[in-house]
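Here is one chain, start to finish.
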Amino acid sequence: MKVLVVGANGQIGKHLVSFIQDRDNMKAKAMIRKQEQASFFENLGAETAVVDLEDDIETIAEAAKGVDAVVFTAGSGPNTGPDKTILIDLDGAVKTMEAAKAAGVKRFVMISSFDTRREAILAANSSFAPYVAAKHYADERLRSTDLDYTIIHPGKLTNDGGTGQVEAAIEVERGEIPREDVASVIVATLENDSTISKEYQVVGGTTPIQDAVKSI
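Its structure:
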C-alpha cells in the first residue's frame, strides 16, 4: 500500500512516514510545502511531493496519482489566524478529498479534532471556535463523499513517547495522547478495512493499539 501523507512535515506526519517506511507492506509519499523539508523524508527512503494546500485541486491530485490511500494530517497550526484555519483545515481538506477522487484514490483517513459536533463549536472559546468549526464542516463533507473514509478524533496531543496503548471508541472520556501513538493508530487504521465508514475518538489507555483499532 502506497500512502500519501498530507501534512507530512508536521509532528504526527513525521512519525507516520517513519512508521510506514518501517513496514514491509507500506510505502509513504510525503506531501510537503517546501523543498528544504524533503531531506528528512528522503533519508527514510520516502518519495516526496512539494505541494501547498492553497494550490488548486489539480496540483494536489497530481501528488495523489498512483497511491492507494490518502491521510490528511495537515493543520494551520496554533500561531495562525482564522483565515489560515479556513484555508488549510477546511478548504485544504475539501480540496484534498476532491483531489483523491480525481486521482482515483478511494481510501481516505482524516485526522480531525477530538470533538467536532456543533455543541463543541458553541462550547469553544473565541480563539478555538474557528478551528472546531473548520473541522466540523470538513468532517461533514468527508462523510458525504463516496470515499472509503475513516475519521480519527485524537485527544489532547503531547510530545511524550508513545506507549503503544490507547482507548478508542465512538466516544471516550477526554484525555491526552502522544503524537507518536496517533501515528501508530493511523497505521493500524490503514491496515484494518473494518474501520472504513467509521469514526472514533482515541486517547491514551491500556489496550494495545492494534486491538483497540480492530474493536472499532
